[in-house]
Write a structure and sequence with these properties.
Shape: globular
Catalytic activity: Couples ATP hydrolysis with the unwinding of duplex DNA by translocating in the 3'-5' direction
Strand order of the largest sheet: 3-4-2-5-6-1-7
Radius of gyration: 25 Å
EC number: 5.6.2.4
Structural class: alpha/beta
Largest sheet: 7 strands, parallel
Number of strands: 18
Organism: Pikeienuella piscinae
Bound molecules: adenosine-5'-diphosphate, zinc ion
Distance between the termini: 32 Å
Helix content: 40-55%
Keywords: ATP-binding, DNA damage, DNA recombination, DNA repair, DNA-binding, Helicase, Hydrolase, Isomerase, Metal-binding, Nucleotide-binding, Zinc
Strand content: 5-15%
GO molecular function, one term: ATP binding
Length: 515
Amino acid sequence: MQPALDLLKSVFGFDAFRPGQAEIIEAILNEEDVLAIMPTGGGKSLCYQLPALRREGMTLVVSPLIALMRDQVEALRRLGVEAGALTSANDPEETERVFDAIDRGVLKLLYLAPERLGSAAPLIRRTGVSLLAVDEAHCVSQWGHDFRPDYLKIGALRAALGGPQTAAFTATADEETRAEIAAKLFAAPPRVFLRGFDRPNIHLAFAAKDGPRRQLLDFVTARKGRSGIVYASSRNKTEVLAGALRHAGLPALPYHAGLDPETRRDHQERFQLEDGVVMCATIAFGMGVDKPDIRYVVHADLPKSMESYYQEIGRAGRDGAPAETLTLYGLDDIRLQRMRIDESPAPNDRKRADHARLNALLALAEAPRCRRQILLGYFGEQSEPCGNCDLCDRPPALFDGTEAAQMALSAIYRTEERYGQDHIIAVLRGEATEKATRAGHDQLAVFGKGADKAKGWWRGVMRQIYALGLVRIDAERHGAWRLTDAARPVLRGEERIEIREDTLRAKAKRADRAV
Ligand code: ADP
Ligand code: ZN
């Protein structure tokens, strides 16, 4: 279930697929026609970009938004992928460059604006298309909110191209629209992917490390007889933990890429066949594991990103029966992960994006309310409080953080949503750094308004407003903090917000820059 993981890493720089991506990509690589419904922000474009790299010839992408196409083409070119767009906004050189790449047969992805479908048809017919990808496919729906008459030409183009494999994507999930898309874009019914990301049978829980060995032993011992995975951040640690659990009378085995193949196979087989084995593993364990009745997943250390977290906990409870998770996290983990990112040879843009993905996970760790809402929200899915996470079970003590949040939000707003956390906090605390004075931020009304609170206290507030969805961190813009629509009512004083007390008190001394 991990098609083209190598490309995901080497070209796109991601370490895990997002929910749904792996299945959709696998189907596309198997040459199936696909209609995929994914929430906005869920990562649709990767689902056709990655297969495009895997196969011969050109992938044609029809997309309605010129600005979006341009962004994608630029991003792909930065990754070293031959991509181009033909839109009404092209300048002549750009069009020349695209034509030339098509002529030389090197263009992998051609983005085409709907209004160009007719005029570009002869050229495309000559070149041939190995995959037709239709973004925002609901635009073909005459009754939909976003109807684009030009989208109706896609069917004809498809026929003229000899009916190439087609993959259509949309975030609109209602049944009528789906049926209309299927009828208008495909010759035969496509395979439909419509799966919410939620795995409601998996209980979510986080705990700050506080005697982590004990915490792990308690958790696993209480579940003796059930199969589970304990993920640890290093090979050595998997062996140490397996030893400690065995010492406590539990059938635990280590698993990591450094073990010889025979041992690895043996351990995997025992986990698969025997009841109640605890696998202490690095993330090398999981890809090929197909055990439906894994009852729990413990992260002995914080995972790398929201995506990795989701993927790893998702190995529990595939049979649909209740399953549990526990993620332990501590200051050292955060430091380690940050160091790994900083010291990797990746370019700076990618590092910033990696930091942002880690930050999202930290915000989940210190969330003030339902974890599932935050997790699903990260992948673009709205939901109600789940009743199946530790925070729904036992809501944490909260205080009225409206004023603090307003200050932070207004500092973000007044500095034009262009800065990261450190600078925003410096402004709040009235630190006349060079950056602040140069930008004139020391003249802002909000400058120094929060000087009576420590840096760590403000970091806590920042994590919380992030967890509440009032801001997002723009990975594409150097990790700048930006306001979301949800921030407005708070800024206008129409909505009060509550902040978790423990995250500000306990960690006020922390020296990390957690979000
Ligand atoms: P949409 O579904 O709205 O078209 P995009 O394709 O634009 O979403 O993806 C949204 C964001 O998610 C992009 O910034 C993209 O780089 C990021 N993304 C996509 N797939 C992954 C992944 N597997 N891991 C991490 N980030 C990803
Ligand atoms: Zn919940």
